Amino acid sequence: MTDIDTGARLDERRLELLRRRLHERGLTAGADEIPNIGEALTEGQLRMWFVHAADPSGALLNVCLSYRLTGDVDVARLRDAVNAVARRHSVLRTTYRTDADSELGLPVPTVHPDLTPGWAEHDLTELSERARQLRLQVIAQREFDRPFDLGAESPLRITVMRTAADELVLLLVAHHIAWDDGSWEVFFTDLTSAYTGDPLKPAPRASS
Hints:
This protein is α+β, with helices and mostly antiparallel strands. The chain has helices spanning 12-22, 43-54, 75-88, 129-145, 183-196; strands spanning 62-70, 94-98, 107-111, 118-123, 156-164, 167-175. The protein has one domain: Chloramphenicol acetyltransferase-like domain (Chloramphenicol Acetyltransferase).
């Protein structure tokens, strides 16, 4: 995972404990995978967890993208493709809860076999051009600012807005605990393969 400059700092006691627990893991993401979750989180993910825990109603760690698609796009097939990508990358099916036995409030990740990314659809084709643009802005701002419930939902959600018979706008929002700068390329490569019917390889396993 790629850490981010949030300005937040963990106290030295907590950091030292995290470093000891992570010292022998050394997990890194390969070029063909979104970083996956093993039995513990990376130090960068732990930092993000504590930032999130300090303000769970905030959207500081949301990573957002607006993407326009043109042509004959099958929305149901697109959703199936998104779910196929989530099946390949366990980090997109992971929730987090606080360890009740940890005085430091350390998170416990849980990978769910059937958890899918959030999904919403809006048809804006009946609106005037001006009303459609305003509605796009309202929905985008709402989704970009909406926090994740990391204890219950996937750290990825997608909103599909149909703006014309041959045009869609996708809003993709991911939580930084599961996403870094390299994740976008991996995600869209896998999404394209899944949508076109190409089989996805199993994600590389994290090594300790």
